[in-house]
Amino acid sequence: MINEKQKHSDLLVPSTTGPSHWGEQYNTCTGKHQSPININSLDVKKVNLPPLVFQGFDVAPRETNLTNNGHTVVVTMESEVTPTVSGGPLSGVYEYSQLHFHWGDNDTFGSEDMIDNHRFPMELHIVFYKQDYKNARTALNYPDGLTVLAFFYEIAPEDNPMYQEFIELLGNVTGSHLSARFDAPPSLKDLIAEDLLHYYTYDGSLTTPPCSEVVTWIDFKEPILLSHAQVQAFRALENEEGHPLTHNFRPVQPLGDRVVLYNTDEIIKQVDLDEEHPPEQPEGVDTNKIDTPKSDEAISSPKDPNSRKHPRNTASSPFTSQWTVLGASLVFTWIVFCCSDRYC
Ligand SMILES: [Zn+2]
Description:
Order of helices and strands: HHEEEEEEEEEHEHEHEEHEHHH
Distance between the termini: 89 Å
Helix content: 10-25%
Bound molecules: zinc ion
Oligomer: single chain
Structural class: alpha+beta
Number of helices: 9
Number of strands: 14
């Protein structure tokens, strides 16, 4: 019986022609908000988003299977507690669907998103669908249908012990469409980085056909460390033609009008400083218009990247403005009152 999680792995099956031909069969692959992208770290908007909330990440699944589907390695889990993620740039709760990897022929490239034109040797994608949409396939019909937690890998001198059984099992799924089962299934927390505060986020797409623009990407800054030999184990897998399964990443796509956000704790100090010591404004600039939310909708819509402001920014600015207006009104009233009584 095919369950929803297995069906979702079909989403990762690319057409037989290369990425440059995907648009011939799938209009969405030529969209304006495609993934992956190159993230220019000097051209991101720093924000303090609400904390991401991870549930069930530290629970070892009852059963975990690893499958070579001819295009990547997919990991599916059966668990008492389905891991979920919420908070951060997300509205609503997102449920775990599957995880898979992208890698290259050697250690100099392999990741899909790039940071400052740098490719990492491998990238992990943990795919979640919005709980409201019941399953990953239905979620593809909604712009906020999926979120992918992405982690980059870097090469370290030592093996990563948390990946030991994972790497051993790769030897059992060398051929396309082979599966293997973990003896001691790792929890999601075992497989990811520790720092979950610093991340880039932007609205993008699936990186394989149908390239649906339904993904909130969350790319964590801290890489996961694996040894060269551990990454090399992925390169020993074979595709459906029996050739080495490598280079399963899509070229970067134009950023277009999108804004990449970078979640950091630095801005808290910056906001406090700014409130106490507002910077001098050049002549002709109306300070009341800076950082003042345009409408309630702009504050509450997390899909609008320009609206993803720290709550303190959105909450404090109108508050400050109201008191400024009230103060100015009192002074104006006093002046009118005084002048009308000829006290001036
Ligand atoms: Zn992927």
